[in-house]
## 1
Amino acid sequence: MFDVWRQALTFFVLVFVLSLILWVTAGPMPAVITFAALFVFRWFFHVRNLVALGYWLEQPETRNVPEGEGPWEDVFARLNKMVRAHRKERAKRASDLHDMELATSALPEGVVSLDKTDHIEWCNPLAEQHLGLDRTRDIGQQITYLVRQPEFIEYLAAKDFTEPLQLHGLLGDNLVLSCRLVAYSGNKKLLVTRDVTRFEHIETMRRDFVANVSHELLTPLTVVNGFVETMQDMPSLENDMARRALPMMGEQTLRMTHLVGDLLTLSKLEDKLNVLKEEVLDVPALLPSCHGVGVALSAGKHQVKLEMLSECKLLGCAEELRSAFGNLISNAIRYTPPGGEIIMRWQVRDSGEPVFSVKDSGIGIPAQHIPRLTERFYRVDSSRSRETGGTGLGLAIVKHIANRHQARLEISSEEGKGSTFSIVFPARRKV
């Protein structure tokens, strides 16, 4: 910057001195003409450099920076240095971006970048295969215009991405995709897809195996249990070992029958072809019978109460909900010592969500066990569960039924102070 001022002032001083000399030697007219001519030349010099700069600015990517003269030489030299640094940095970023694209192309998941309005910004080749996209054509398109399955549109609109969504037959084939949305950089999102067709096939085989084995076990267990009961009723049974063994055999065969029944129920609930049979369910009319079952199961050992805080009905499957309510009630009775209190409650929260809850004054559950309670065969105290006749599948069945009704199972408990199990239904199911 100092050189620019120095050159400009030097030119002005030289022109002024030369004009003074001409004024003294040749008169005022030659001095004025010379002064004006030199300034016009200087003006033309600057205009020529400005034109060169403007010409370069029209296409800076393909044209070279002008060389310039005088004070412009230093300006253009600095500008050329900045351009070279910028191009070098841009080339490095382009190389990094290319490497990132290659890396994401090698990922075992499909990746789609969405802007804040769910328009596609970028996707990797695997996402093109999974979702039927075309990067040359679909960039900038709304994702819901291209992935039109209703469950995906609802998943995107709900903005609850804690659990992945499974899509079946998206492209009219047997492909099963697990889709998860991940928020990043403010309102942007990444749609990550994974092919889980093989795992789904294995899971289907497992469900079919459990269902088939359970079904095959049910008949022999029923026969064995029938013979055991018949032998127990025989008046001539004198053998002490037989008298001790037969009740135990009857108890275990009955427990096995219940276990097989619960496994069959779970297999049915997990079957994708088992569509939920919805109807308007009069819950206030259903709960007194559930209360009666609880009283009978308690056999007078507990105070079983029913609190009806709402008369609203529910859209759902009566058979499944009766099973879920019954499992919660039997669990409460099973884990509440004699003399305890069990309260069944039907209410509607301020948010409009209908809730069925069972509160007990039982042994309670340590906090570290609560997240795993709905796992199959998970037992906080295995010895006590077997003593009380539990199969270890009741809460798993309740969770599956809740999920089929878009409800959630809430569990609150404190060790030694009892527990509360609540099925919270979405407000749209309230009738």
Note: DSSP finds 13 helices and twelve strands in the chain.
## 2
Amino acid sequence: MTREHPHRAGTRSVNWDRKTVGSFDVVVIATNHQSVNYKELAGWADCIVDTRKQMAGVKTKPGQMWKA
């Protein structure tokens, strides 16, 4: 728990797998995490909005990735 965001205490992450990630309409990259496999993300997500330039070196399909 943090003082800045106590309302997020107990919030759980989703599973990192093709079925879970692929079930979302869009994936938003809002922070940079070294543990995220962005190549897997490109293979699983239909639409990615990248606010952190993490997909710059990852091959994506036309129209799949949007810079924000």
Note: Residues 38-44 form the longest helix (7 residues).
## 3
Amino acid sequence: MSVAPSSAASTSRRRFEGKVALITGAGRGQGRAHATRLASEGANLILCDIGDARPTSTPYDLSAASDLKTTASRARDLGARAITRAADVRSREQLDAVVADGIAEFGQIDVLLANAGIASISPIAEMSDVMWQEMIDINLGGVFKTMRAVVGHMVERGYGRIVATSSIVGRQGSPNIGHYVAAKWGVIGLVKSLAIEVAEHGVTVNALAPTSVDTLMIQNDAFWELFLPDKDEILHEEVVEAYRALNPIPEPWVAPADVSAAAAFLASDEARYITGEVVPVALGWNARNAS
């Protein structure tokens, strides 16, 4: 098992004091880790996650309203002001409303972490139109619509940090998740294009490319069976070893806090001259590929 950093954030480093961050997919997993990391460094938060219009193709349950409330509570315990909103990133209207509410509450949005996403499994030849469309609409279209909702405000203010969640498979092919791969490749192209468009306006745009992250997105029977398809009974220890074999650093997956550390750096002013970049948090998987 991977071990979370011993100090996920230094309480003496308040890089986001006076800043406001919008985080999508904030109910749990990476989104919750991002929220607590930025809160611990002084940020106030606009937290959103999916509402009632839920995808049908995921092999695991998505977050509930109670999960988002828990994230907000943990952020407030760290001293942050936080508001929560239900929003489906497929909806321009809902995202525009989240941004408007956030600006009304805090007066500004400085950071966007476009984190919301889903995962599902199917060979391309057997993939349903619904599974394909939900993936593209959420994991790529949702990032586009979230960026579009906030970037005009950032350009007008002359300041902004946008960090989108791609994946280490956003730079290579992978069987049984071709729709996921396609969406994550698309996120990288979107990030690089927007980075050029807004570079002169004080806004940076970057992407994270994690390997497998220890969340419910991979910790479910469907993904375990993908790695061990011939097993009648799958043991967790076998899953750990199957994932571990993918990575030069001999760990099976990273913790959400590992990804949040990179997100916080890219969202901070320490990274003010980094834009259009893709930062792997990938246990060395990226070292095997030229791109």
Note: The first helix runs from residue 29 to 40.
## 4
Amino acid sequence: MTLKPIQVINAMDEYYNEYPVCGGRSIHKMAKKVDEKVTLAREKFQKFLGASCPEEIIFTRNTTEGLNLVANSLDFKTGDIVLTTDREHNSNLVPWQVQAHKQGIKHVVVYSNADNTFDLHAFEEIFHKNNNVRLVSMVHTANLDGYTIPAKEIIKIAHDHGALVMLDGAQSAPHKPIDVKALDADFFALSVHKMAGPTGMGVLYGKHHLLEEIAPFIVGGDTVSDSTYEGAKFLPPPEKFEAGLQNYAGIIGSGAAVDYISSVGLSNIEEHEKRINTIITKGIIDLPGLKIIGPQEPSKRGGIISFTVELPKGGDAHDIALVLDETENIEVRSGAFCVHSWFNYRKCEAAVRASLYIYNTEDEAKKFIDTLGKTIGLFNP
């Protein structure tokens, strides 16, 4: 979750105060205003992601819904293989486990190297041993440790073997420039609450010809142009995937969020986070009982510092997080970060994660280092 700039809040308030009506239904002035604002937001995301046209942008509630839309809309056959990494968020793990039961697909995990980087050789070997990989669905930047997989290479290998590729971009889109055409990704999902925007908003990008081919996931109002008692005529993308009343304030606020972080510059955000991460990594890496998850080089972990703690006098990840919050108002995450499979496989219960964004400063980084050192000292003899 990120903090929200006033520009986003004001854009949403404008909708509720000035034209709080439904879009896509009426021809009066306020409804037309909503339609204009929704279209504008869609165009902003097209440009933000480098999509070919606005129709490739589908508004969802979050990354989870986007991933589930594809999982439930692609025409899988029994025995089709879906590949994921070994550190997927539950949102890109559980849908494939469900589809394995429902449609008879096979979910195969690509295990990482010892340092948690992607094993490109093991990935390619799977294709040499199997000719029925239908989809590669992988976390672009992991919320576990901030590591970004070599997406361009992965996509080329997958496409060379006839497989589609979907990226979970929840942790990449807010933090670095994304160009879905340059990557040649088939699908790309993101959550707006992670990019200075409102909660309950997400985007799914899909290549237009694929969106035309796949079936809608949730159907009803606004997905069809006409219906009879015998059947219905579906609208083209993106409408056929955006069923029912939309979160118009959220869509408009999402457009404002794109404007905001684009004005800062995604490359600037990426470099700022790496600079702060480097300061923190150097300051905490030698603390007793602390082990950083993922690559030890901070530039390979973007804006995330995750670590486990093993302390002589007890005290676990949750204790560390509580003390940081109660003593100095430092907000961190503790637990398994919805990546339970990774932690269970390694018989590790929990970790602490500090997540950085554009508003975090070097002074805050130094304060975190100092407070974490004192906190760990409380649990050492």
Note: The chain has two domains: 6-264, 266-378.
